[in-house]
Amino acid sequence: MIQFYDIFERAFNLFSDPDIDRKYYNDKAGFQSDMLDFLILGKNKFTSPTAITDKLVICADPVGYEESDSGDGTAKYVLEQQVANNGEGVGFTYRIGKEKVRGTYDPTDNSVTFEREVGTDETWIVSWFYAGAFTADFSNCLRSDFPMEAIMDKVINILAYALLSAWGDKEVGRVLDVRNILTDTDFDMYSPANSARAKMEWRNQMNRDMDTLVSELNWRIMATPKGGSNFGK
């Protein structure tokens, strides 16, 4: 099994975007929801080895929920809805009124604890989102002598780059749309960091990095003892 959350974490460390940073630190539920869309698009760019990629169609469905209630002067509250996957790999967003705050989840009693007490005149809100997982048994898609832990780690890296590439596709399209409506005068004030060329170069680099990882994965599998004609058996 590959938790989508693990892929998102790898991808986040490769982003260089202030909006993504803010979402990650202040709205983990929203971050996971956004990243899921790009993972779904990006995984279609990962096409080999088919012994692994064919398994990527087997997924656990995403699920999310939001609860709110009036405060009672304490910081801890028990949720009515059971959090998916016992809270593992789930993105939480905590708010008191309109203010986003820190909080923690305790799976032992399905409770949340805010960073401060919630007054009786205030409302607490908890949103959570579980993006899902690739649930296939990858251990039976290759021979038993393959180093599956190392291979799965590389697969997670490839999927992270695939996600980044899909996000880059969207950014390139967005910047091209902006460029098409700007005048020559606007271009004098437009930041080169947000130019279509910069976005394209970043996206293309993600594609090259992903291609390199895919090649390394294929080579590693084929170079394993008893590889070659027995590949994937």
Structure description:
The chain has helices at residues 4-12, 18-26, 28-42, 50-53, 148-181, 184-189, 196-223, and strands at 2-3, 59-60, 63-70, 76-78, 90-96, 99-101, 103-106, 111-114, 123-130, 133-134. By secondary structure, it is an alpha+beta fold. It has 2 domains: 2-62 and 133-230, no CATH class; 66-130. Helix 1 crosses helix 5 and helix 3 (28-42) crosses helix 5 (148-181). The longest helix has 34 residues, at 148-181. The radius of gyration is 22 Å and the shape is flat.
Structure in a nutshell:
With 233 residues, the protein is α+β, with helices and mostly antiparallel strands.
Lateral arrangement of strands in the main beta sheet = 3-9-5-6
Query: Count the strands?
Result: 10
Round the mean pLDDT to the nearest integer and report it: 87
Percent of residues in beta strands: 15-25%
Count up the helices: 7
> End-to-end span in angstroms?
20 Å
- What about the largest sheet? 4 strands, antiparallel
Helix content: 40-55%
SS-based class: alpha+beta
Number of domains: 2
**Elements, N to C (H/E):** EHHHHEEEEEEEEEHHH
Q: What sort of overall outline do the alpha carbons produce when their principal axes are compared? A: flat
Tell me the Rg in angstroms. Answer: 22 Å
Low-confidence stretches: 226-233
Oligomer: single chain
Keywords:
single chain, 2 domains, disordered C terminus, 3-stranded antiparallel β-sheet, 45% helix, alpha+beta, 233 residues, flat, 10 strands
